[in-house]
Design goal:
binds zinc ion, single chain, 8 strands, about 220 residues, globular
């Protein structure tokens, strides 16, 4: 993966057909997705359960771009090897998921993956101030994690603060939750480069009829650019 701050749209397969992940990934990629965002939930750190490393491994061959794995699980460390083996390009863990986020980020990099850290809406930018040189991506949650289709919570001030903290470092700022053509411009202007979108990408389309995915991706991109 080469680093740049160009706008990237990362559809979240949380909003896709759970019986058809492989075809859904191929469909959104054919329609212009830059990355594929994979939401792992454990029913403990967040209320819902989605799937684990085995499912990620099954999905991987169907992804040609970047597999961006968002771990909403606690504890994290014992599971990292499994997600790395599954072929994750980026593994993101939550700063709130335990007392040893620095160790977790070191572990992710030692497994050969890019390391991401996610911040819940209630967590300030300062929580990652001492981690800036240990991360490749900071994920700013603009909903409380656990479900797709929630209302965007405005975190643009936090994004601006993080953008300043990052400076020239090759660190992505990713936005996750409630991204659509009305909210995307706000976070892009504040300095984000990766926009995760679930419902706003998958609504109206299907594997059999993927054209709406493309229209939805282009609408988010056009609004943000
Ligand atoms: C929320 C997940 C998000 C979610 C985004 O817990 O981390 O990735 O799928 O879904 P939308 O875009 O529908 O808010
Ligand atoms: Zn996510």
């Amino acid at each position: 993966m080469t680093f740049d701050r160009s706008l990237k749209i990362a559809p979240s397969i949380l909003a896709s057909d759970f019986a058809n992940f492989g075809a859904e990934c191929a469909a959104v990629e054919s329609q212009g997705a830059d990355w594929i965002h994979v939401d792992v939930m454990d029913g403990h750190f967040v209320p819902a359960i989605t799937f684990g490393a085995q499912t990620c491994a099954a999905i991987r061959p169907h992804i040609k771009t970047v597999m961006d794995v968002h771990l909403m699980i606690a504890p994290v460390d014992a599971y990292l090897q499994g997600f790395a083996d599954a072929g994750a390009d980026i593994i993101t863990a939550h700063v709130e998921a335990g007392p040893h986020i620095h160790r977790t980020l070191q572990n992710i990099r030692s497994l050969g993956c890019k390391a991401g850290v996610a911040l819940n809406p209630g967590t300030p930018a300062s929580a990652v101030a001492d981690l800036i040189d240990d991360v490749d991506l900071i994920c700013v949650m603009t909903v409380n994690p656990g479900f797709g289709g929630q209302k965007f919570i405005d975190m643009t001030a936090k994004v601006r603060t993080l953008r300043e903290m990052i400076g020239d470092r090759p660190v992505h700022i990713e936005i996750d939750g409630g991204v659509d053509p009305t909210t995307a411009p706000l976070v892009r202007a504040a300095g984000a480069d990766v926009l995760v979108a679930g419902s706003a990408v998958f609504r109206g389309g299907s594997v059999a009829n993927p054209a709406p995915y493309g229209e939805n991706i282009r609408a988010i991109r056009a609004a943000a650019e």
